[in-house]
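User: Can you recover a sequence for this backbone? Please restate the input before giving your answer.

Assistant: Of course. Working from this structure:
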């Protein structure tokens, strides 16, 4: 299912945590939200999941406006990064885990993990375990 975030703004006591954010994620597409602490990544995920509502803008699942739907009315879930790392698995296996669970062929997983690692500049870390990383 396609997900669209259109001109979303989220304010907390007049502080704009998100300002005019738009995304268009196609069905089956794998994305990563990257940015420094305080840039709004978690806020955006909370809005998509329905844990919070946008101050302005629209969140669409397919053609359906879900901007004001509760968590229970959406088929969405997420896990915070800290708890999503499997300590017994390599960085590559952690990155590719969702694809593996979805039944993606091994060769495609390897290609997509390599592509993501290249974009992130972490190719040399793919064989390491989380405990071998800074802050891991």
């Amino acid at each position: 299912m396609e997900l669209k975030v259109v001109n979303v703004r989220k304010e907390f006591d007049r502080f704009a945590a998100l300002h005019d954010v738009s995304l268009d994620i196609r069905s089956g597409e794998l994305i990563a939200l990257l940015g420094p602490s305080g840039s709004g990544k978690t806020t955006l995920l909370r809005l998509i999941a329905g844990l919070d509502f946008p101050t302005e803008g629209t969140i669409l699942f397919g053609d359906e406006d879900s901007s004001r739907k509760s968590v229970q009315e959406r088929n969405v879930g997420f896990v915070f990064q800290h708890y999503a790392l499997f300590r017994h698995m390599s960085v590559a296996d952690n990155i590719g885990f969702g694809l593996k669970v979805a039944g993606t062929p091994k060769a495609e997983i390897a290609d997509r993990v390599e592509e993501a690692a290249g974009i992130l500049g972490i190719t040399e870390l793919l064989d390491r375990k989380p405990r071998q990383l800074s802050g891991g």
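That completes the design. Residues 82-132 form one domain.
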